[in-house]
């Protein structure tokens, strides 16, 4: 059960409603998801955060399969059922193998991953677990993704970490009809 009530569009002032509408439009969704509605108690901050997420999801320099794979790695590190359930399906659709996703889900990665995926996992694990990224890990990601892609990966890890930390504190529910695959 969520720790804060979900904000409805009509509860917001005109500026907040514009932010609500932008979140919905950025995601091409009929309504704003529950986790974002929990964040809308602080509409401006939620707006900035979700705009960053939309930029990274829909305008990333990373190939679609590696972007979705990276989001899955971050969501697994934070044990986010919400993010894992959504993005594992998107990763599979983008061509990430079931065995690669299972290696991440079960904590066996980087075993069983291809070289590209291993570079992503190493980078994210160092960033989140060690709180630093080695020159070798960064160089591997930069060689794989280019400079902009390496920056997008860094920001993607940062954004999804922020979203997952908000989920830890606010405990939003899964969307109706969704069942965790984590």
Report on the architecture of this protein:
By secondary structure, the chain is mostly helical. The protein folds into 2 domains: 9-58, no CATH class; 64-170, AhpD-like (Up-down Bundle), CATH 1.20.1290. The protein contains 8 helices and no strands. It is globular, with a radius of gyration of 17 Å. The mean pLDDT is 96.
Q: What share of the residues does DSSP label as strand, in percent?
A: under 5%
Rg, please? 17 Å
Uncertain residue segments? none
User: Could you say how many structural domains there are in total?
Assistant: 2
User: How many helices?
Assistant: 8
The main pleated sheet reads as: none
Summarize the amount of helix as a percent range. 55-70%
Provide the CATH top-level class of the largest domain. Mainly Alpha
- Architecture of the largest domain, CATH level 2? Up-down Bundle
State the secondary-structure class: mainly alpha
Quick summary of this structure?
This protein has 182 residues and is mainly α. It is built from eight helices and no strands.
SSE diagram, text form:
Blueprint: H1 14-26, H2 34-39, H3 43-58, H4 64-77, H5 81-93, H6 98-105, H7 115-130, H8 135-170
